[in-house]
Design brief:
Layout (H helix, E strand, L loop, with lengths): L11 E5 L32 H13 L4 E5 L9 H7 L5 E6 L8 H7 L3 E5 L5 H8 L4 H13 L5 E7 L7 H9 L4 E7 L2 H4 L8 H11 E6 L6 E5 L12 E6 L5 H5 L3 E4 L4 E3 L9 E2 L5 H13 L9 E3 L5 E3 L7
Parallel strand pairs: 1-2, 1-10, 2-3, 3-4, 4-5, 5-6, 6-9
Antiparallel strand pairs: 7-8, 8-9, 10-11, 11-12, 13-14
Length: about 325
């Protein structure tokens, strides 16, 4: 297993299969690349299924044991099932999707080897959902979540980005998940450094405090030092685990989050990325031969730097500034 100079072992990879998407969410950062989305038709610069599988085979050589498939919208790839089926047996395969294509495909994805899924859902109201996603597909997403549950995907996590336009929907979403044994909720802090619109940011600490008051049990995960809250339990479980699980992903300004990062990312064009927040560390895997992938993967891991606390450091006035030690001149 490879580790960077800060002792962070890389155990997972996050692979974007396309930058195409049938939604146009107002908060989208497209895996940190910015708004590069284009036409819905497949384009030649996307990694082929062979490229993706070849990369995963090399990652498995370094004991990487999980892959998250993302986009854009990964289900726009007609060869998605093939990619999942051909992934190394030693890897847990999960996916993040907007859910609109899960009806009719969820069972096939499970048969191919998909184990977990995250579905983006920022509101439980069709009009609010339309405003946030620029899409009228609310009913289709609800149907997709149901299809994922029926297909046996476990857990099915709902991803909700928390910012000015969605913060008021958090209590309703938490109650909804607390009543659904098959669902979990992931509240994701809005990242203005990737999207802009700093005026949209909210204090995620307030959400933590609100959940802590309601929770029957609180747990801290090693991955990214994340907090999990069990809400709405009926007391029937001796360990307090009854009810819905709500997890907060809060990277902004969070040195502990970055200190516990274990993932490397791959763009749809076949570039390795050591940090979501950075695009000055993109590294090509060349013609995608296994030798080229190995070399690029080793170099990417070796050069990984915690974003907050190392790449970005305190400026003495409570803000953050770039640490020149990690910027190539």
């Amino acid at each position: 297993m490879l580790a960077d100079s800060f002792g962070r072992e890389v155990t997972g990879v996050r692979v974007s299969l396309t930058d195409r998407c049938n939604f146009d969410c107002v908060y989208c950062h497209n895996e940190g690349l910015g708004d590069t989305r284009g036409p819905m038709d497949p384009r030649g610069h996307e990694m082929s299924a062979d490229d993706v599988v070849r990369f995963l085979e090399v990652a498995a050589e370094f004991d990487v044991d999980s892959v998250k498939l993302t986009g854009g919208e990964p289900m726009l790839r007609d060869d998605l099932e093939e990619i999942i089926e051909r992934a190394p047996d030693s890897m847990e395969v999960s996916m993040t999707t907007n859910g609109t294509f899960l009806p009719g495909r969820a069972e096939g994805l499970v048969d191919a080897g998909l184990e977990r899924v995250n579905v983006s859902q920022d509101a439980l109201d069709a009009d609010a959902f339309r405003e946030l996603t620029q899409s009228g597909a609310y009913d289709r997403v609800i149907e997709g979540v149901r299809a994922a549950v029926d297909a046996g995907l476990d857990p099915v996590k709902l991803n909700m980005v928390v910012f000015r336009k969605t913060a008021g929907y958090v209590p309703e979403m938490v109650d909804y998940v607390a009543e659904q044994d098959s669902l979990q909720l992931q509240l994701i802090e809005f990242m203005p450094e990737l999207v802009g619109k700093p005026e949209w940011a909210v204090d995620i600490g307030d959400v933590h405090d609100w959940l802590a008051e309601r929770a029957d049990r609180v747990e801290t995960r090693e991955m990214h030092d994340r907090k999990r809250y069990w809400v709405g339990g009926d007391g029937g479980e001796s360990d307090g685990s009854g009810g819905g699980m709500v997890e907060i992903v809060d990277p902004v300004g969070n040195e502990e989050f970055c200190a516990n990062c274990h993932r490397v990312r791959v763009t749809h064009e076949g570039y390795l990325k050591g940090c979501l927040n950075r695009n000055d560390d993109l590294r090509s895997m060349g013609e995608m031969t296994k030798a080229e992938i190995r070399e690029a993967f080793r170099e990417t891991v070796e050069d990984r730097v915690p974003y907050y606390g190392e790449y970005m450091v305190r400026d003495g006035e409570g803000g953050w500034e770039v640490n020149d030690d990690y910027v190539e001149v």
